Amino acid sequence: MNHKYLILYNPVSCNGKSSKIVEKLKLDFDKLKYSYKYIQTQYPGHMTELCEKNQSYNQVIIIGGDGTFNEAVNGIMLNPLADQQVFGFLPGGTGNSFLYDLGGEKYSKAIEIIKKGQIKNIDILKLNLKKSVKYSINIVGWGLVSDVNIMSEKLRFFGSARYNIASAYYIFNKKHRYATIEIDGRKIEDNFLFLLCSNTIHTGKGMKAAPHAKLDDGLLDVTIVKSNIPTTSLISLLLKIFSGKHIYSKYVEYQQVETVKIYPSKNEMLNIDGENKWSTPVVISVIPKKLSIYA
């Protein structure tokens, strides 16, 4: 194998965690006598540009969190040479949901995956929005899962506790959203609490939101909770999400499908791979085995 790598990283991810990971990686690669070039992103969207324009390296390592990985994938999908490239991921974020599925949520595990050089072709989620097409590697969430993310951003001074605080607020202040949701052609019109489309088992920090998900099965794992769920049942459901047992609740509809369409009565922001961006309406589908990664 040609050990020549392009290393791309977000220096501000998780208060500089990615920069520390880069220093570890350089030491490891120097010991192995691997050739590499590293570039740090300078502004939001720069990772997308770097991945789109890379035509010199066929082995690329991305360091950051789920949001950084999302930026990378949206650039990769615009690169005409992407089919000839292989991508490795190292954990430089807070949650690192995507890497939990690979067993690489810690640097020591993730670097071993890259060094072994085994390649897996994984699915990418395609998002047809009102005026553009975007991509996702982890999750697409609508409703409560977006509300919690938006509020937690405003509570960053609480550290990691901000997610618990935001979740508690919306448990006791549930928002009812009316929408038409179409799943593989089947229409549901109702009030919903949230909908989550998953490409991975994990979301957040180790939560098993979609316990039956596989990165290469060509399917979306969809979790739907309608707004008629009692508050006590919602608390119980959210506690069970770390084990994946929430899917057995009578208030949860969980299934594996090919296409999901969301048409709410009021368009709002989506939670895309842990970041609040883009908005409904949206049609979500799967591009099977599109991305070659070390796994």
What does this structure look like?
- This protein is of the alpha+beta class.
- The chain is 28% helix and 35% strand.
- It has 8 helices and 15 strands.
- The strands form 2 sheets. Strands 5, 6, 7, 8, 9, 10, 11, 12, 13, 14 and 15 form an 11-stranded antiparallel sheet that branches. Strands 2-1-3-4 form a 4-stranded parallel sheet, sandwiched between helices.
- It is globular.
- The two termini are 16 Å apart.
- The relative contact order is 0.16.
- The model has no long low-confidence stretch (mean pLDDT 94).
Q: What value does the average pLDDT take?
A: 94
Radius of gyration: 19 Å
Instruction: Give the low-pLDDT segments.
Output: none
The overall strand count is 15
Secondary structure class reads alpha+beta
Task: Describe the oligomeric state of these chains in a short phrase.
Answer: single chain
Taken as a percent bin, the fraction of beta residues is 35-45%
Largest sheet geometry: 11 strands, antiparallel
The end-to-end distance, rounded to whole angstroms, is: 16 Å
In DSSP terms (H or I, runs of 4 or more residues), the helix count works out at: 8
Shape: globular
Give me the strand/helix succession: EHEHEHEHHEEEHHEEEHEEEEE
Helix content, binned percent: 25-40%
